[in-house]
Structure formats: C-alpha cells, structure tokens
Amino acid sequence: MTAGTEPVQTGIAHLKNNTDPKWWLDKGMRKLSLGIFVGFCCSIQTGYDGALIASLLANPRFWVALGNPSATKLGLIVASQSMGTIPGLIPSAILSDLMGRRFGQMCGYLILMAGANTLAFASPLSPNYMIAGRVIIGFGSGMTTIAGAPYTAEIAHPRNRPQATALVQACFFIGSVTSAFVSLGCFMGIDNDWSWRLPLLLHNVMPITVLSLLYFVPESPRWLVSKGRVDEAHQILAKYHANGKMDDELVEWELAEIQRALQIEEVAKTTKFSTFFKTKGNRWRLGIIVLTGLSSQWVGNGIITLYVVSILNSVGITNPIDQKIYNGCLQIWNGISAISGALVCERYGRRKMWLTSCISQFISYSIITLCSALYANGNHAAGYVVLAGLFLYFASYAIAFTPLLLAYPIEILPFSLRSKGVSLLLICSLSATLINTFLNPIALEALEWKFYFVFLGVQVLVTALIYFYFPETQGHSLEEIAVIFDGPASKATPDDADDFAAPAERRPTLDPQ
After folding, report:
1. Same-domain pairing of 168 and 308
2. d(Cα 150, Cα 169) in Å, to the nearest integer?
3. From CA 291, how far away is CA 313, in angstroms rounded?
4. Is 238 domain-assigned?
5. 3-state secondary structure of 487
6. Listed residue (295, 37, 294, 348) closest to 167, CA to CA
7. Which part of the chain is the Major facilitator superfamily (MFS) profile domain (predicted)?
8. Rounded CA separation 77/427 (Å)
C-alpha cells in the first residue's frame, strides 16, 4: 500500500495489543460495545424524532386533535424541533466539556423525556402545546448528540474507531424506520387518540435504555485526561482496549498521544469558540464544518423528500397506508446504504466516499429532474422512473452524507474543539433545515420541477469544494490527523522521540508541506 492509504489496523500493527483481532471474540471489546451502543443511541433517537412528525401528520386523528392548524402553524410545528435544538447546542457543548460526556447525555435524555411526555399526555392537544413540546425535545436531542457522538469516537478501539464513528449517524435510520412502522401499526390497530399518543410516548424507550446503561459504561478517556485524571483514563484504556493489561504497548501509545495532544492544545478548558479563527488549521476545520453542515441539507435531499407524496399520488399510490409502507421501505433502503457506507469508509477513504456520493447524486438528480419535466408535460410513465430515481438518489446521499456527516468533522477536530465543532456543525445543518422548511414549499409551488436546477448547481459546487478542500484522514488516529491541519509541530508522538512512532512509510503523510 502507498503511504497514507492503509487502514488504521496497519498503522498500529507494529504495537503489541492484548486483544483478539476479531472484536466479538475479545472480552474487553465486547464490554466496550455497550458503550459504543450508548453513543449510537443519540442518532437512533434523532431518527425517531425526525420521522415521527411526518408520520403523525398522515394520521387524520392527529389533525383533529390539533384542531386542523393553519399552514403557518403547521410550518412552525414542523420547524419547532430545529428551533429548540439550535439555542441549546452551544450550552450543551460547554456542559459536555465541563462535566463529561456521560453527564451531558444524561441531561439531554431527561430533557427529551420531559418534552415527549408533555405531548403524549397533553389534553387537549393544541398547536401551541405541540410547538412547545417539540422545542423541548429538540433541546434535549441536540444535547444528546453533542455528548454522544464525540463519546463514541473517544472510547472506541483505534482498530474499529473509523467504522464506529461513521455508524453513529448511520443509526439515524434505525430510529426513522422504527418510527415509520410504529406509527403505521398504531394507525392501523388503534381507533382512538392513542393512535398518535402512543408513538409520542414511545419517545421514552431510548432515554430509559440509555439512562439505565450510563452507570455501566466508561467515561471518555480523553475527557478524563483533560481533567488531570490520567490514572483513571489509563485504567479504562487498559480494561477495554487490552483486557486489563496496564503496560500494553497500544494502551501506552494511546495515552501518550492523548496527553501530548492536550498539551499542544493547552488543555480543553482554555479553548473558546473564537479559537476556530486563531490559526490557519482551525479556520480550515471551520470551513469544512460549515460546508458539511449546510450541504447536508442543500444538495436536494430536502426538496425531494417533500416531493415523494406528490409523486406517489401521480402514479396512483394514493392510499395513506400504501404511502406509509413505501416511505418505510425507502427508510430501510436508506439505512442499508448508510450502514454500508460506514463499514467501507476506512477501506476506500473519506474523500472517495464524499466524491462518489456527490457524483452519483448529480446523475440521479438529473434523471429525476428530466423525468419530472416529462411528467409535467403529460408523460405519466416518467413518474415511475422518478420512483426508481428516488431510491438511487437516496442511496447516493446515504453512503457518505449520512455516516460522514458527524464522523468526518469529529475526526478532524482536536479534543478541545470537538464538542464545540459538533455544535457548530449542527447549527449549520439545522439552520439549513429551517430555511428548507419555509423556502422550499414556496419555491416548489412557484417553479415546480424547474426549482431542481438550483440543487444541481449546488451539487456541482459542493463536489468541487470537497475535491479541493477536504483532506484524506484514512489510516490515522485522531491525534495524528491534527498534523494534516496544523503541521508537524502538532504531532502527538514525534517520530524521533517516541518508541511507538508511526512506521516510516507513513511519516510523509504526517508531515504535509
């Protein structure tokens, strides 16, 4: 393999590690999987939240309970969760850095439960109740993501970290598929208000699950080191990454990298949001975060989602149950695509995944645009091609934009900026979602399929920026990636001073010009 293209397993192969190469056969790594699952839960919960409102709006009893709200009220209801998430992101990042990743998750899930129960037991339910409850849910959901996503990357074994981090956002579809079919089952099986109250009440399942597990999972070793609790961090790394062997080479290498990286960063507590503007490397990171957050919602996925129902109606799929089943199957397809992308991202590299996704999206979006135009001009058969194009487009989007949306920014951010960077990423993504919520329906009504050309242009621009602006992170630890952005001075384990330095063939990739 050429320098810098080998997976992490090769990069740490020279270090002796007291674990089985197959994680599921290793006692310590099996225990660690419980903590990884807890980190995944933030995305599963977000997926459930995100898909639930669309499912509920297809339930006539829910409309009656809301009092048939006006279009303006309906727009506020849809957008209210994002409105609640945005103001809580920065405080959540500060709390997560100050009190720890587990504490941040605990607070987020408790707040989320408060919002869900407010809606499930509201009597009578009104648009204002719905808006308030969803704002609370949004605040709690953002807090769980800020704490949970970095937590996954920070506790994962280096051998599995790329896949584990990429799977965080891919788990979104586990929640969305569950939400779609839970809502369908309640709609078909319950002939009263519990057909919409029960899906809201089931918000509590994931918070209760996580809260019952938090005591049994480890705290982030990187957070512990940042607080001077080096011995605790060492014990956790040894327990989960080497089956308790304190002098394991890999464990000592990890601990040395974390300590050195935090020394270089002048410890997390001294870092502020303004730090993003102080160095060229941090400005580079900030640009990637902003681009990733905005493009995740502005490459056409939002407008296509709105168009699904009208396309289904155009080809004769008008029954609400049939539409729910189609959308549920589409969510399953998206989940398979996202998980597949997460599992191969380390093998093929992040840039290749990003670029493959963008190019595939452009091709499938062009097909959808062309066939939408043909349908608008009387060719009804083109509607069926659009249905197939939707599967192709969402697969193209999900293989990279779902798993790498969180994984790539988490990788490129140093510890002191990690939770703050994730909060900025979500602010950008949710701001783009809010704009979509209010702008897209108006533009779609005025321009119809012609509005798609805007997103084709955005896709070309995003592809070019990714090609020139996104570095490859394949094959490097979290601390090594800092060298790509900040130069050799930031190297956590200098080649000439560390017994466990990177192999010679990898050093050029850690000393960029």
Report:
1. no
2. 12
3. 35
4. no
5. coil
6. 37
7. 35-474
8. 19
